[in-house]
Amino acid sequence: MKMKMPVWMACSAVLTLATLSSPADESSTAAAGPEKTYTGTVTAVHPNDQALRVRGLFLLNKDFHIGSSCAFSLWGNPSGALMDLRLGDEVTISYQRSNGVLVADRVTQDMSTRKGMVTAIDPVARTMTVRGHGMEKTFQIGDDCNIVLRDNHSGFISDVQPGNLVTVTYDTPDDRATVRNIAQTSATFTGTLTAIDLDSKTLKAKSTFTTKAFTVGGQCAIMLNGKMGGQLSDLTPNEKLVISYDDIDGVNIVNRIATVPAAQTQTTMTSP
């Protein structure tokens, strides 16, 4: 004898099957695709609309909506906000695309670096020119620029002199290269020149307590009375020098030599 399923059980089963086989809800069908990245230059910032435009490769512009949990990692401000971005900033955006809309979940500011020799610096105008790889580039020194010296000590603009070997970190707001960090990490030795070999490009200098041997680097700047362009052959024994160098596995490689002008002797004029 066959058992008949009660009507209420049959209806429940039909509803359950309908629920399980129904299409996903609207949020599921609109799910975003895999996360992608896009790198370029900020060309427009719209804080009120929580939107951002970035120009990338081949001058292609992309518009991004800023997600509610979007993280901003900016230079000197790892927890910044959309309004902290400036036109010309280089950024990498992590985003998802949903139905043609790009939603950013992370914005990282990309900084540029340049290593080279300081050929000019103006503390008043806050500009500096750095020569590297045979090319010179002039920078604006940002008001918030950090000066980093040897052993990570903080310094001042006055600690950076023409002829110094530096590494600058900069961005390009409003298409103007602006330095945010200057690293001048060479050691300094002040002493009297005791020996020099032009062929091997080596020299020795002594201070009150020690004598050091140095090897002159190929791009070493030689400053004679504050002016660039000197030659190793211009140096003479017993001359007082300020030597900037880097200790590379026990070898002192010189990147800057500056002569110290002799103190002028003051004479007193006596009336007869």
- Helicity range: under 10%
Order of strands across the widest beta sheet?
1-2-3-5-4
What fraction of the residues are assigned to beta strands by DSSP? over 45%
Under CATH, the topology of the largest domain can be stated as OB fold (Dihydrolipoamide Acetyltransferase, E2P)
**Largest beta sheet, briefly?**
5 strands, mixed, barrel
Quick one: CATH superfamily of the largest domain? Copper binding periplasmic protein CusF
Oligomer: single chain
CATH architecture of the largest domain: Beta Barrel
Specify Rg, calculated over alpha carbons: 32 Å
- Count of individual helical segments: 2
Given the helix and strand composition, which structural class is it? mainly beta
CATH class category of the largest domain: Mainly Beta
Q: Which residues form runs of ≥5 with pLDDT under 50?
A: 13-29, 264-272
Number of domains: 3
Order of helices and strands: HHEEEEEEEEEEEEEEE
Count of distinct strands = 15
Outline: elongated
In short:
With 272 residues, this protein is mostly beta strands. It has two helices and 15 strands. The longest helix has 15 residues.
